[in-house]
Amino acid sequence: MYSERLDKRAFDELRHMEAEVGVVPNADGSARFKIGNTEAIAAVYGPQEVKPKHFERADRGIIICKYDMIPFSVSDRIKPGIDRRDMEISGVITNALSRAVMLEEFPKSMIAINVYITQADAGTRCASLTAASMACADAGLPMRDLVASVAGGKIGDSIVLDLTKDEEDLHEEGATDVPMGFLPSKNEVVLLQLDGKISQEDLKKILAIGKVGADKIYQMEKEALKRRFLDENKS
Is residue 131 part of a domain? Predict the structure, then answer.
């Protein structure tokens, strides 16, 4: 039984968050999102010419995302380069943002997104998706809504929000981890993955707790973009 979280948070409490945009000067849009000890930096370039050309679509633009955990992002130094997990998360971010960005506005064009994890303590795909969404908005891309992403899960008999790596590894059988992504104003889910076994009823509870957490992240995203707009008007 998991009756108290290791870091003393409430079961439905997010870790401390930081969000800012305009952090990469040479990008068309960029953002940094940190939640607990997980930090993601995203840079957006485009719309631009599609390369390679055979990926081009006549009726809409495409998103190409590259996700990378830099070697010093975890205590055990990881091998540089892109592995299968990096490619899978790149696809997750691409799919979610393709439902948020109005790609029909950019036929025969490409939007390139680079996401780097500078610190990792679980929830990297969710932090990456949130940072990438803010970066797209910072680039001035038309969007149906921002994407707010967070993971929920189950440890023992307890439904929890925003797991840490220690929590994921707490039990021998591991915790159930459910990364989620929402378009909050549209009440749409654009990311839902499941790592582990869980009942349908518990999945509904995790989605509910995730939606509440995502709404808080959404407000922080909007505040970061508002600060950027106000700062530009002052300068």
Answer: yes
What's this model's pTM, rounded to 2 decimal places?
0.92
Which phi and psi angles does 182 have, rounded to 5°? Answer: -130, 150
Is 4 a domain residue? no
Give the residues across from 40 on adjacent strands: 33, 117
- Torsion 59-102-98-40 (CA) sign: positive
Whether residue 121 lies inside any domain: the answer is yes
| CATH number where 29 lies | 3.30.230.70
Pair of tokens at residue 102: 């109005």
Q: How many CB atoms lie within 10 A of CB 170?
A: 17
Residue 189: domain span = 17-230
Scanning the structure block, which residue is given the tokens 């010093």? 72
Q: pLDDT tens-digit profile of 21-78? A: 999 999 999 999 999 999 999 999 999 999 888 989 999 999 999 999 886 555 555 5
